[in-house]
């Protein structure tokens, strides 16, 4: 079998994942079809059913052909007008190779337990990952850490609104006057979950069956809002689980007449939906690379730049500095939509940071340091609070680890004091670097000459040109749109 199919690349396989053709044939002995899917630039699953015979043939070779147009159109299948690197009119949207990742094997419990596998996309000429394939990008970043003997670990948390609607009713209502699943602001409520108890519990229970383990599942503040924390694991497995959790929640919702929305800011006057990411590195022994030594545990690291980082290892501080140094240059990878930037209002009202800030256990900062004394050394990690629930988890995680590893490589220093030492006057005086406030500004910054994202050791020009081009398309559509706000404001009085 092709090495592309069997290599796990440090990924934690799902339980019972096959490691040979005979094991695969045994797993599928009673099946007649298999479902496969890959991920496009917007984080949308694109896939199909395959006959078992066709699937086994593809699994026993380099893979199967898959139309490259999925990297040449947006989430609504509108073809990008710009000739992008991966898929364009010039080559007639030629096929890519979809390489089946056997480590992702699971069954879809709400679809009669049909077998399911994720794929990665390879260039048909070189057999190398294409530059814009989300799984391929993250796998390459993870491999850089593995080359140093480190494992990238991560966890994702999603906040998301629920509506008593269907895809048809959303369209019929023109996406206005939608009915929330529950009313009022009820974070961590035990009563509100009783109103839709079967749906609420189905999400948790089906996630376990789908091998997307959860750590927590509760109501969040806002009408019909839930928050779900996915179990901490290897970074590629985490990204897979994150993308599949959205698929699961939307699928379960359909069965209950509910539409869960991972849109970052559905309502202007309510908190938005975050996609917080927790990250750490582990060495070959499984110890957190960010943890201080036993000798430093009482008083902290003597050479720490600031008190907030004294319980981070030197590598942890460099990693943090790397994130902060490059954060403004990779914002489209963390916040990829027009709407996502409306969530980043700053302040403590909505805890959605909009500046290059960090702090020990601070939910007002862009990077929250989670370390002793609030957690044991083994749990030392960082929470990146910039992404919204609309993020593509592969790109968001790739950006975080690429910047962090760059920080360690360059031994970068922190750019300034923690958020606890900053004042409103500091922000007004320009002592705090602000993040881009729109997708247009963020994309311009990412694509400019000299961007950290363009560094070959980070993402390189090919990725930036392709991904940046897709974001320019998104901006163009927004700039051409006429919104209800404009009509209401100008139609009569202008």
UniProtKB/TrEMBL annotation:
Annotated coiled-coil segments of the chain? none
Q: Does the keyword Nucleotide-binding feature in the UniProt annotation? A: yes
Keywords, sorted A to Z: ATP-binding, Ligase, Nucleotide-binding
Q: Does the keyword Nucleotide-binding apply?
A: yes
For this entry, list what GO says about its biological process: biogenic amine metabolic process; glutamine biosynthetic process
* InterPro entries per record: Gln_synt_N_sf, Gln_synth/guanido_kin_cat_dom, Gln_synth_cat_dom
Citing just one GO molecular function, the answer is:
ATP binding
A Pfam family annotated for this UniProt entry = Gln-synt_C
TM regions (residue ranges): none
Which ranges carry the GS catalytic domain? Answer: 134-494
User: What does the similarity note say?
Assistant: Belongs to the glutamine synthetase family.
Check the record and name the PANTHER family matching this protein: GAMMA-GLUTAMYLPUTRESCINE SYNTHETASE, TYPE-1 GLUTAMINE SYNTHETASE 2
Protein name (record): Glutamine synthetase
Per the UniProt record, the lineage of the source organism begins with:
Eukaryota, Fungi, Dikarya, Basidiomycota, Agaricomycotina
């Amino acid at each position: 079998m092709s090495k592309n199919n069997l290599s796990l690349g440090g990924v934690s396989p799902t339980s019972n994942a096959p490691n040979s053709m005979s094991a695969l044939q045994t797993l599928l002995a009673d099946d007649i079809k298999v479902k496969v899917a890959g991920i496009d630039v917007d984080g949308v699953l694109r896939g199909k059913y395959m006959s078992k015979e066709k699937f086994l043939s593809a699994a026993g070779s380099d893979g199967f052909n898959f139309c490259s147009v999925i990297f040449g159109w947006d989430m609504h299948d509108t073809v990008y007008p710009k000739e992008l690197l991966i898929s364009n009119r010039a080559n007639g949207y030629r096929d890519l190779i979809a390489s089946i990742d056997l480590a992702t094997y699971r069954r879809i419990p709400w679809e009669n337990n049909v077998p399911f596998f994720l794929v990665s996309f390879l260039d048909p000429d070189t057999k190398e990952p294409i530059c814009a394939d989300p799984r391929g990008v993250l796998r390459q970043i993870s491999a850089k850490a593995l080359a140093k003997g480190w494992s990238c670990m991560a966890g994702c948390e999603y906040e998301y609104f629920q509506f008593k609607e269907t895809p048809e009713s959303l369209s019929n209502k023109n996406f206005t006057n939608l009915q929330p699943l529950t009313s009022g602001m009820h974070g961590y409520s035990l009563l509100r979950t009783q109103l839709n108890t079967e749906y609420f519990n189905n999400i948790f229970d089906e996630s376990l069956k789908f091998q997307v383990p959860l750590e927590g599942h509760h109501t969040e503040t806002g009408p019909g809002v839930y928050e779900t924390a996915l179990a901490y694991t290897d970074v590629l497995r985490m990204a897979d689980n994150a993308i599949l959790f959205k698929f699961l929640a939307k699928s379960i919702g359909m069965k209950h007449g509910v539409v869960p929305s991972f849109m970052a800011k559905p309502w202007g006057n309510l908190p938005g939906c975050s996609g917080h990411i927790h990250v750490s590195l582990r060495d070959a022994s499984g110890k957190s690379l960010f943890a201080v030594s036993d000798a430093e545990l009482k008083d902290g690291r003597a050479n720490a730049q600031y008190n907030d980082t004294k319980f981070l290892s030197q590598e942890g501080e460099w990693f943090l500095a790397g994130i902060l140094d490059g954060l403004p240059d990779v914002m489209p990878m963390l916040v990829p939509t027009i709407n996502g930037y409306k969530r980043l209002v700053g302040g403590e009202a909505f805890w959605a940071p909009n500046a290059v800030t960090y702090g020990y256990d601070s939910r007002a900062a862009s990077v929250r340091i989670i370390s002793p004394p609030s957690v044991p050394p083994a749990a030392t990690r960082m929470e990146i609070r910039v992404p919204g629930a609309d993020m593509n988890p592969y790109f968001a995680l790739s950006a975080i680890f690429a910047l962090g590893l760059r920080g360690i490589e360059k031994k970068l220093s922190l750019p300034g004091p923690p958020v606890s030492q900053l004042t409103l006057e500091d922000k007004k005086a320009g002592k705090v670097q602000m993040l881009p406030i729109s997708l247009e500004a963020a994309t311009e910054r990412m694509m400019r000459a000299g961007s950290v994202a363009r560094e070959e050791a980070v993402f390189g020009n090919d990725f930036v040109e392709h991904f940046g081009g897709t974001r320019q398309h998104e901006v163009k559509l927004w700039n051409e749109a006429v919104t209800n706000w404009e009509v209401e404001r100008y139609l009569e009085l202008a």
